[in-house]
């Protein structure tokens, strides 16, 4: 039985164990500076041999969210999540994109990332 383990966290909670594709803090700081963000997200997936792989993601922008909504209306969610993963990915293990199970797990986590930011509606 094949399995993929998925986690999505921001870089502030990174574990001491270094998965395949891990980069040092100076690279993370360089990405934060380049993309003008306070955090870089990452996804941990596990291959069929039990090796953990990391994929680093920049923060999503409004254009990506608009594209996802348009594709969802056309029943193209799978294609949209794949496009968003490829667009947000800034580094990490290339094997995640090559292995179907890890890529699918990463795509599901990207969906969680997009749902993670919510607003609160109020009336005055």
Outline of the structure:
With 124 residues, this protein is an alpha+beta fold.
Describe the structure.
The protein contains five helices and four strands. With 124 residues, it is α+β, with helices and mostly antiparallel strands. The N terminus is likely disordered.
Low-confidence stretches: 1-6
Total E-strand runs: 4
The helix/strand class is alpha+beta
Please give the oligomerization state of what you see.
Answer: single chain
Q: Indicate the percent of residues in helices.
A: 40-55%
Spatial strand sequence of the major β-sheet: 1-2-3-4
Shape: globular
Sheet with the most strands, sense and barrel status: 4 strands, antiparallel
Give average pLDDT, whole number.
83
Q: In percent terms, what proportion of residues is strand? A: 15-25%
Figure out the total of helices.
Answer: 5
Cα-to-Cα separation, first versus last residue: 54 Å
Taking Cα atoms only, what radius of gyration do you get, to the nearest Å? Answer: 15 Å
Helix and strand sequence: EHEEHHEHH
What tags apply to this protein structure?
124 residues; alpha+beta; 5 helices; globular; disordered N terminus
Spell out the blueprint of helices and strands.
Elements: E1 7-10, H1 25-35, E2 41-46, E3 52-57, H2 62-73, H3 77-88, E4 89-92, H4 95-98, H5 100-115
Antiparallel strand pairs: 1-2, 2-3, 3-4
Helix pairs in contact: 2-3, 3-5
């Amino acid at each position: 039985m094949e399995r993929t383990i998925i986690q999505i966290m921001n870089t502030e909670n990174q574990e001491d164990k270094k998965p395949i594709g891990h980069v040092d803090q100076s690279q993370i700081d360089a990405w934060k500076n380049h993309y003008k963000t306070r955090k870089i997200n990452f996804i941990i997936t596990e291959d069929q041999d039990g090796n953990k792989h990391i994929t680093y993601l920049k923060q999503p922008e409004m254009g990506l969210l608009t594209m996802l909504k348009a594709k969802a209306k056309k029943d193209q969610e799978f294609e949209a999540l794949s496009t968003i993963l490829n667009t947000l990915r800034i580094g990490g293990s290339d094997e995640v994109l090559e292995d179907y199970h890890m890529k699918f797990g990463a795509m599901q986590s990207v969906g969680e990332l997009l749902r993670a930011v919510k607003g609160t509606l109020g009336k005055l």
